[in-house]
Design a protein that fits this description.
143 residues; 3-stranded mixed beta sheet; 7 helices; Diverse_CBS-Domain; CBS domain; CBS_dom; CBS domain-containing protein; CBS_dom_sf
Amino acid sequence: MSMNAPMKARDIMHADARCVPADETLDRAAEMMRNLDVGALPICENDRLVGMVTDRDIVVRCIAEGHDPSRVRAGDLAKGTPRWVDADAELRDVLHMMEEHQIKRLPVIENKRLVGMISESDLAKNVTDTQLAEFISAVFVPH
């Protein structure tokens, strides 16, 4: 890579991303999150990204609504089209997508497969202070 080549999603992502199967129960998804020390997992069905589940989703959309996390499937929380970025996307495009859609964690896809995740900590290591401040002000809005 030349010194002037723009940084790509693959350069900043963490590559050890794991999927929770869409048919897996939320109690198992929570165990995966604990074991991996993450707050969100991509939901995959037949090796395809179908959504994301966060620890907050499990609490707010399952437990707080009186549902049993051992009976609710991760796929039940997958709604809409999941946002993702191609591994060759430039850093500025990654930042733009995360800011525009207020996304804190972004799956990275290559050849239709999940190859990594980009989180705010990955950004913090790879962007300028100004870019990070803009990201934080765009994404971390008060409820």
